[in-house]
């Protein structure tokens, strides 16, 4: 007999009966800061929050830098024992940022242990440019990499066999050879965006560069991206070169 | 044997029977978007009325409306906004559960986002009520957790 009344939200109860993965899915659409508050809904929900596999840190929604940093550390700390893999990490710093190099390295180390597939880092900082530790350049699980306001020091090998999307915005490279090394380390890249790549040394024309074989779409707002690499792009968009 | 739909295109329609005994018709191409339905069709054949025990006559028409638009490629942001505009929280929850049961991915994703939108910046009590969660923390445990996570709670509305 299927007569039942729809009072007092039986749907609410049924939603709580859903498995953690589905509740996580809803929470993954919320900013991490708010998703974290669900950890006090009940003991069961505390676990749900920790299972979320998308992390989104944006300092703009925090009152000040210290709150942001505390939140980032707490999240990483809470997850330290969980073998939870994190699918996607977005990390955006703005004018507040006071992260130092050591703190940034810790965050990178954390993500590297999690099988990350999508990484989006904007390490804007008023006083310094944060350096990307070279160990991340062999992170085989990455499929989407977006970097902004970061310095690349010396590095040997770049090995990103799965990267399909690569966006680089205001990245400091030692020399043009390093840009090439980086881009060629992403042989499967289909969607490339570069803006304001900054060099310590002047660009020199490079010979014998093979075009990235899988490139579909390239958008270049930068004079240091070697054009030869873009030869196979189906859609090529070159913007006015910006200064500085 | 293909049935002829009453629309001008002679596409196959599937009969769905809700948990409260009502029958609705959908295009076969829409049924394909609901993996649970498709599985039942694969098992039972497409000439049989497909029983959906956990979906009812209140919500199925709305779901059918969504997928009617989907198969003609007409789902836009405006349509989606309109679709949820007049739904109260319970109705969204019911649709969400139905989309989950039917394994209707596009609708499921859309409603997940909509539920999150409805919860954004709301207080913990509000979210508890929304999900029907019983708080099994003692007051001491809860206040300790709130203190530890104080920065998460700044900016989140407090219930009166």
Structure keywords:
heterodimer, A: 244 residues, nine-stranded parallel β-sheet, 9 strands, B: 9 helices, 54% helix, disordered N terminus
Please, could you describe this protein's structure?
The complex is a heterodimer of chains A (244) and B (160). By secondary structure, chain A is of the alpha/beta class. In chain A, 27% of the residues lie in helices and 23% in strands. Chain A has helices at 10-17, 20-27, 32-37, 43-50, 65-78, 101-112, 176-184, and strands at residues 54-58, 88-93, 118-123, 130-132, 144-152, 165-173, 191-199, 217-221, 235-238. In chain A, strands 1, 2, 3, 4, 5, 6, 7, 8 and 9 form a 9-stranded parallel beta sheet that branches. Chain A is elongated. Mean pLDDT of chain A is 85; it is low at 1-8. Chain B has 160 residues and is mainly alpha-helical. Chain B contains 9 helices and 3 strands. Chain B has helices at residues 28-31, 35-44, 60-71, 77-85, 89-102, 105-119, 124-131, 139-148, 150-153; strands at residues 13-18, 23-27, 50-52. Chain B has a 3-stranded mixed beta sheet with strand order 2-1-3. In chain B, strand 1 and strand 2 (23-27) form a beta hairpin. In chain B, helix 5 (89-102) runs antiparallel to helix 6 (105-119). The chains are: A alpha/beta (244), B mainly alpha (160). The A-B interface holds A 2, 6, 9, 11-16, 18, 22-23, 25-27, 29-31, 33-34, 36-45, 61-63, 67-68, 70-71, 74 and B 19-21, 56, 58, 89-90, 93-94, 96-97, 100, 112-113, 115-117, 119-121, 124, 127-137, 142, 145-146, 148-149, 151-156.
């Amino acid at each position: 007999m299927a007569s039942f009344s729809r009072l007092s939200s039986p749907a609410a109860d049924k939603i709580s009966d859903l498995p953690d993965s589905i509740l996580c899915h809803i929470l993954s659409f919320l900013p991490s800061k708010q998703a974290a508050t669900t950890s006090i809904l009940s003991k069961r929900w505390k676990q749900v929050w920790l299972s979320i596999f998308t992390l989104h840190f944006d300092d703009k929604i925090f009152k000040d830098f210290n709150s942001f940093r505390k939140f980032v550390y707490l999240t990483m700390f809470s997850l330290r024992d969980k073998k939870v893999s994190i699918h996607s990490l977005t990390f955006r710093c703005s004018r507040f940022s006071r992260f130092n190099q050591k703190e940034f390295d810790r965050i990178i180390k954390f993500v590297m242990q999690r099988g990350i597939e999508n990484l989006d880092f904007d390490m804007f900082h008023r006083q310094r440019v944060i350096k990307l530790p070279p160990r991340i350049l062999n992170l085989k699980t990455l499929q989407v990499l977006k970097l902004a306001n970061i310095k690349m020091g010396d590095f040997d090998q770049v090995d990103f066999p799965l990267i399909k999307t690569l966006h680089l915005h205001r990245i400091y490279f030692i020399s043009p050879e390093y840009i090439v090394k980086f881009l060629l380390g992403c042989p499967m890249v289909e969607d490339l965006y570069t803006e304001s790549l900054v060099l310590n040394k002047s660009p020199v024309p490079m010979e014998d560069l093979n075009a990235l074989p899988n490139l579909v779409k390239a958008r270049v707002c930068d004079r240091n991206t070697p054009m030869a690499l873009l030869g196979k792009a189906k859609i090529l968009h070159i913007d006015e070169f910006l200064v500085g | 044997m293909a049935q002829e739909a009453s629309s001008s295109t002679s596409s196959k329609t599937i009969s769905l029977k809700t948990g409260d005994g009502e029958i609705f018709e959908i295009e076969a191409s829409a049924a394909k978007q609901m993996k649970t339905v498709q599985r039942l069709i694969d098992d039972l054949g497409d000439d049989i009325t497909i029983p959906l025990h956990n979906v009812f006559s209140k919500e199925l028409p709305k779901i059918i409306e969504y997928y009617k638009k989907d198969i003609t490629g007409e789902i836009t942001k405006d349509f989606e906004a309109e679709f949820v505009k007049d739904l109260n929280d319970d109705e969204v929850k019911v649709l969400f559960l139905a989309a989950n049961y039917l394994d209707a991915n596009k609708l499921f994703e859309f409603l997940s986002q909509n539920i999150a939108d409805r919860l954004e910046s709301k207080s913990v009590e509000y979210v508890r009520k929304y999900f029907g969660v019983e708080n099994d923390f003692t007051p001491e445990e809860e206040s300790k957790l709130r203190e530890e996570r104080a920065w998460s709670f700044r900016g989140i509305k407090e219930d009166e």
